[in-house]
């Protein structure tokens, strides 16, 4: 029997197809109530005010590199909520709650893609777990920050997010620039892994204008999305192939590129990644330098990012060993005690 032509040429490398729940169903199961909706909108407005210079507080996006254990993330959120409230006069603290992990080659792709940490790829469970955690963090009074990697995922969780990021590996992608142009929160654009800042500046310009592109609506139906453009996109310096880019000269150069492009002169410094040489112990040193620049009058630095968890360092995901509770399985993070010291130091400047 001759197969229909579509079966002969399509999906030759697809092992299986599993139905994906719709965004509408997940929102019905785990709704964002009126109080939490108001909190998300307040968080977005607060971030935008800091970006626009209407609020002189420092934006601090802080939390695990990537969430793998919701229970540990919630304990972290409990501690951070108390600290955020105590330092609220000086810092606008947003909890980093990342679920998608971009990989240079291969590895664990994050809680949404693999919530069981075993390669089973139960994305439906991952989406439920992620949204549930986001709602619980919001109930603790913390705004939430996420990186958006897959262009479909935002329909499931973006209504809970006050600040978002487009990562260094995707900042050059037209798909992600289009996505950012339609997202409802401020978006940080990271410089490329090789250190290119102009690419991120181009991304900010592109995301600021309207786009038309295919996607899905809340019912999961294929749709053509028409965006308005996102004026709250901004630069994130994370270092690159040539080393750190958080120093005064680097910051001034980045702000000059923004000015030349006709964009607001504002940026966030990521104290991790290449800026710390991927050494979590160096993050406080980066922050000390950034704080000194702000104290000297550099108003272009409006925020910082920190990778932080309960236990310092990182661990490998090894199925033969039990995981250390509260320690990252991706990038190495500062421990909680160091995090508090850094936040208090920032608030006192």
UniProtKB/TrEMBL annotation:
Name of the protein in question: Phospho-2-dehydro-3-deoxyheptonate aldolase
Gene3D superfamilies: Aldolase class I
InterPro entries noted in UniProt: Aldolase_TIM (IPR013785), DAHP1/KDSA (IPR006218), DAHP_synth_1 (IPR006219)
Ranges of residues in domain DAHP synthetase I/KDSA: 49-343
Role description: Stereospecific condensation of phosphoenolpyruvate (PEP) and D-erythrose-4-phosphate (E4P) giving rise to 3-deoxy-D-arabino-heptulosonate-7-phosphate (DAHP).
Cellular component terms (Gene Ontology): cytoplasm
GO biological process, one term: aromatic amino acid family biosynthetic process
Catalytic activity, as annotated: D-erythrose 4-phosphate + phosphoenolpyruvate + H2O = 7-phospho-2-dehydro-3-deoxy-D-arabino-heptonate + phosphate
Record-linked SUPFAM superfamilies: Aldolase (SSF51569)
Class of this enzyme: transferase
Enzyme Commission code(s) on record: 2.5.1.54
Family: Belongs to the class-I DAHP synthase family.
Pathway in which this enzyme or protein is active: Metabolic intermediate biosynthesis; chorismate biosynthesis; chorismate from D-erythrose 4-phosphate and phosphoenolpyruvate: step 1/7
Source organism: Phytohabitans rumicis
Domain of life: Bacteria
Gene Ontology MF terms in the entry: 3-deoxy-7-phosphoheptulonate synthase activity
Stretches of the chain forming a coiled coil according to its record: none
Record keywords, A-Z: Amino-acid biosynthesis, Aromatic amino acid biosynthesis, Transferase
């Amino acid at each position: 029997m001759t197969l229909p032509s579509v079966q002969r040429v399509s999906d030759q490398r697809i092992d299986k197809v599993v139905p994906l729940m719709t965004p509408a169903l997940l929102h019905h199961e785990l709704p964002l109530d009126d109080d939490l909706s108001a909190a998300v909108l307040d968080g977005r407005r607060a971030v935008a005010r800091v970006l626009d210079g209407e609020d002189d507080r420092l934006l601090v996006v802080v939390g695990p590199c990537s969430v793998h254990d919701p229970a540990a993330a919630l304990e972290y959120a409990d501690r951070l909520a108390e600290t955020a409230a105590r330092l609220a006069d000086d810092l606008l603290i947003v909890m980093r709650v990342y679920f998608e992990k971009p990989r240079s080659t291969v590895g664990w792709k994050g809680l949404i893609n693999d919530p069981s940490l075993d390669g089973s790829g139960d994305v439906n469970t991952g989406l439920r777990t992620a949204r549930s955690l986001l709602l619980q963090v919001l109930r603790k009074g913390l705004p939430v920050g996420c990186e958006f990697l897959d262009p479909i995922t935002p329909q499931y969780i973006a209504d809970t997010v006050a600040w978002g990021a487009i990562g260094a590996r995707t900042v050059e992608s037209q798909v992600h620039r289009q996505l950012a142009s339609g997202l409802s929160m401020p978006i940080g654009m990271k410089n490329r892994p090789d250190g290119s800042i102009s690419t991120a500046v181009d991304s900010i310009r592109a995301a600021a204008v309207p786009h038309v592109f295919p996607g899905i609506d809340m019912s999961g139906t294929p749709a053509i999305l028409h965006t308005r453009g996102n004026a709250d996109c901004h630069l994130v310096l994370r270092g690159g192939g040539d080393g750190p880019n958080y120093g005064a000269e680097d910051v001034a150069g980045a702000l000059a590129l923004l000015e030349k492009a006709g964009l607001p002169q504002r940026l966030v410094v990521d104290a991790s990644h290449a800026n710390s040489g991927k050494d979590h112990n160096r993050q406080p040193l980066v922050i000390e330098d950034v704080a000194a620049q702000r104290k000297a009058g550099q108003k272009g630095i409006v925020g910082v990012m920190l990778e932080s968890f309960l236990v310092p360092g990182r661990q490998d995901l090894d199925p033969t060993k039990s995981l250390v509770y509260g320690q990252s399985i991706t990038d190495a993070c500062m421990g909680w005690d160091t995090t508090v010291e850094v936040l208090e130091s920032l608030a006192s400047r």
